[in-house]
Amino acid sequence: MAPSPSIPNVQGNRHKRVTVHNSHGEELVGVLHETNSLELVIICHGFRSSKDRIPMVNLAASFEKEGISAFRFDLAGNGESEGSFQYGNYRREADDLRAIVEHFHEEECFIAAIVGHSKGGNAVLLYASKYKDVQTVVNISGRFNLERGIEGRLGRDFKEKIKQDGFIDVRDRKGRVEYRVTEESLMDRLTTDTRGACQSIPNSCRVLTIHGSMDETVPVEDAMEFAKNVSNHKVQIIEGADHEFTLHQDELASVVVAFVKAGLCGDYMAMPSQSCKRTSGHINSRY
Description:
Blueprint lengths: L14 E7 L5 E7 L5 E6 L11 H10 L3 E5 L16 H17 L3 E8 L1 H13 L4 E5 L10 H4 L3 H8 L1 E5 L5 E6 H8 L3 H6 L6 E7 L8 H9 L3 E6 L10 H17 L22
Parallel strand pairs: 3-4, 3-5, 5-6, 6-9, 9-10
Antiparallel strand pairs: 1-2, 2-4, 7-8
């Protein structure tokens, strides 16, 4: 994922640092935007990103403004969380998300939605296919075809090189090693079955895929592949937006919040919700 500007971690009485241990005993660190609502939205970042970058901070703040609590956290090996960064880890990141969901279930929160950006989009979809206990999933700029995008990072001969050396070091423009790709982590990516996972998501789960028309990291065509393979699915293409929606943050947040709130107040309602009783500040759904 291309570098993006960092957004300072906003602290305050309603922003609480929360740590959760995953199934490997690693500490996952996150920030809870607390509104005292029954509902909670969990937000996952993308490849080599963190909870403190766009669009994660802006999305959490947008839900907070609507009176819905949100939790953005660092996946293992990223940001403040423990663990080592791995190139693949798609299914393991879905399991990190499971640890977060279980923690907030113990806190008696209702998980209104799981939202993921870029690689985080894959994590939320894999989660929905495996655990089948969420009613709303938002996939922002996720990659459907995981075989694509590898040559751009590892070079055309990446398969031969990793077979020979056992790893490939990815370097920045100054020649410094940014991260190491092992054969195991590469195969984790190549054997992750996105199509099968999407087809396993139950029809009771509403899925929204949002993509920017000017995304140069993941082609917009991938959004259409998600649409072909998820039974209860909507697509929203934001014209002119790049991979991180750098100049389209407000539009992105409006679409995401509207979709989540439509699920809470519509036919998909799974439990009584205080937020559905509010009459002010409602964002009308576009769907």
